[in-house]
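Lecture notes, unit on protein representations.

Consider one protein chain, 302 amino acids long.
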Amino acid sequence: MVRPVLRLIIFLTVLCLGLSPVGSGAPGKGQAPAVYFEATDPEGDDYGPGSYLYPQNIAFQPYEGLFDLLKFRVSGDEQNLYFDLQIKRISNPWNAPEGFIHPVIHIYLDTARGGKTEPLYAELGVNFPPQYGWEYCLEGVGWESSRLTYLKPDGGLESTTVLAGYLPEHHLIRLAVPVELIGRPRKDWKYYVLIGSYDGFGPGFLRAVRKEPGDWVFGGGAEGAPLVLDLLAPAKGRYAQERQLSFPRKDGQPVVVYPINCEKGFPWGFLLPALLLLGVGFLLAKRVKIFGFWLKNKAQEE
């Protein structure tokens, strides 16, 4: 009897936290939550670097969409920040109290200079670039295991539990965090969103990836393969999910992933062609000028 009551309490608490229509601008008393960041992710890419295959147990039916991140949004009101994720399919075969069990959500926040470049669990199989180290990590995990971990001034880590729940009428998984724990988001904050698979016996509750799929493991991987099924990333280009999660690396190190809103920087790859064209144009113009001067002198001589 305790489990259903606890499940109801968690669900109602998360449901009541900021379910009014989401608006924009600074939140005030009685106003709708403000939206600080939102992004979409390509559909049908819950396959890691492009090769991962679902486990074969019937708990993973219909064998697609259970880890497929579609949207991510950060909003907040006076008391709480809300990290909302839309995943294509939500099922709960083991009746986790939060209403979801398959996806393990890792949200890393880069809010200041410096920060950690390794994830909470080395088994995740990724690292982060030094310029986008993280100060906060949110884990969304079933069975009352969701928590916030943050970097202390002395370099140590400290954790506290947070509320998480599935909101079926909005088709969202929501993690709610008191503003006082993180602060109000700024425009320069960077966001990593990684989706793994829940395994109650795995390190960090993460399910393994092997060469061949089994009842309880993913296939299509190899030793050291990242345990990331979906990554918030653009559909194409240098930062596309397939490119970021591609393994193994030549140096044998974990793959390096980038936040969805990282600075793209100046397109240096186009600088050399542009300079060459400018140089060619300058030379041609100079030749034309010399040729014109020669014609003018020739006409005067005649």
